[in-house]
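Hi all, a correction to my earlier message: I attached the wrong file for phosphoglycerate mutase (2,3-diphosphoglycerate-independent). Here's the right sequence:
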Amino acid sequence: MGSTDWKLPDHQKIAKNKVVGVVVLDGWGEYKDDQYNCIHTAETPFMDSLKKNAPNRWRLIKAHGSAVGLPTEDDMGNSEVGHNALGAGRIFAQGAKLVDFALASGKIYEGEGFKYIKECFETGTLHLIGLLSDGGVHSRLDQLQVSLILEDFDNFVCLGPLGIILCNAEYLSLFSIYLFVQLLLKGASEHGAKRIRVHILTDGRDVLDGSSVGFVETLENDLEDLRKKGVDSKIASGGGRMYVTMDRYENDWDVVKRGWDAQVLGQAPYKFKSAVEAVKKLRAEPNANDQYLPPFVIVDENDKAVGPIVDGDAVVTINFRADRMVMMAKALEYENFDAFDRVRFPKIHYAGMLQYDGELKLPSHYLVSPPEIDRTSGEYLVKNGIRTFACSETVKFGHVTFFWNGNRSGYFNSELEEYVEIPSDVGITFNQEPKMKAVEIGEKAKEAILSGRFDQIRVNIPNGDMVGHTGDIEATRVACKAADEAVKMIIDAIEQVGGIYVITADHGNAEDMVKRNKAGDPLLDKNGKIQILTSHTLQPVPIAIGGPGLAPNIRFRQDLAGGGLANVAATVINLHGFEAPKDYEPSLIEVTDS
Ligand SMILES: O=C(O)[C@H](O)COP(=O)(O)O
Ligand SMILES: [Mn+2]
Ligand SMILES: [Mn+2]
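and the right structure:
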């Protein structure tokens, strides 16, 4: 945007030059106090005191559904959409929604990306690689499926293979134009794909553990339908998302390599004739779960892998979310690549569901244009001279940099910014080390605050989320305590320099660790055991402001009951002493006369 006026007007009532500490507690929502609320049951004296002691400076904000650009109010928040909203100050239609629209309108098949992969359909195989679940965080199974038929316009109900999906009005107007929605598998085959291989990654993180079996069965049924229509379509390989392919921020390339070996080379420690059998058998191993299933390939009667990726094939990574697909995209696209030995680098036509990195333009071909998240608060502030420090450990590092800056890697101005990544533990599940690197993040942030070199210090503290995803309640309590201690360290430093703090979260997770019925009571499985919730939640998140630099007459506005994460950017800009851009969601704060 060449014509952007980057100069922010001075705020009429809020002074400049205070150090502002912005802390994002990952996966830290607000929910009723019971034994499955790990934030409540953990010792979190610092966060508790904020809530208790300054009611005008503590409130809840929305972090899911339409408040963060997701298709429906049933969509839980996640780190990508959460940090995008926090950093950009506006609500953008996010990947999940954009793909829905592109599929519903059929535009996906008219775009450059689809045309590019279609060039291989005559003689090559179309490979689809991605997360197989209806979690809606990285991908959605119904976007892959063969049919979704709108049957009942009056009641706004879409019937699909997965059951009933309620459509909101915006969706309905699009759906109503297209009675039969062509989804990716069906659409690709109708547009000429003759041979399709799906490389599945099982979830259990954005959905219940154990649900992978049902998703694989659903996909198998769809592929069976396609086979009846003469399309040679099969599942070719698989593995658990956290152990195969979906690493992020280059924490552990072995994860991507395991996927590469299975998907591209057709090699894996486990071989099965069917994916349903694979998932059932591998899940039966002690301590096995959907997130960490080992890699497997599907083989034919001669024990030969049914779907390695070879020269002349087309490949689509079907995830719309960026962070856990960037590494695979690099492996599939970059000629020069040394993160691991690819053994074979097939000449393929590769497209992402979306373009995952706007700065790297990666991948160069994609089926759906990503949201154009421009003019983020980070860019405005840096352009107005705010010296910015951002830090987290590897597994969340990109959240306060890449996602915060609208899915762009790199600095806006390397002279004014410093981004510090603390290496995360590798090769463990985080319930084994629930304190993670919270203290180290706290130390780095403290150092940055006390150094006098920065005006904004921005951190993500991952514990509640990363340990919450393991479903280990005891460990999640330890995680929440560690996060609380890290926040206190940072805020103590803010106190020392007379600064201001903003503490919030990107979505819920640790505050509810059990699946519940509509009345909010825990659900039991068929053995009478509670069903552990490893995923995020629909709960709101807290935001607290304070610090000696915050004038006594600044408080949260009382008239913004529906405020959400996107309102935080204008709030932070104000606290730096500037007015926010006019099209930003309104600031949460007001300056009273007294
Ligand atoms: O990628 C993940 O770890 C989960 O799917 C979502 O968690 P996040 O949105 O907090 O990263
Ligand atoms: Mn998160
Ligand atoms: Mn998470």
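Sorry for the mix-up. Residues 27, 79, 465, 469, 509, 536 surround manganese (II) ion (ligand 3) (CB under 6 Å).
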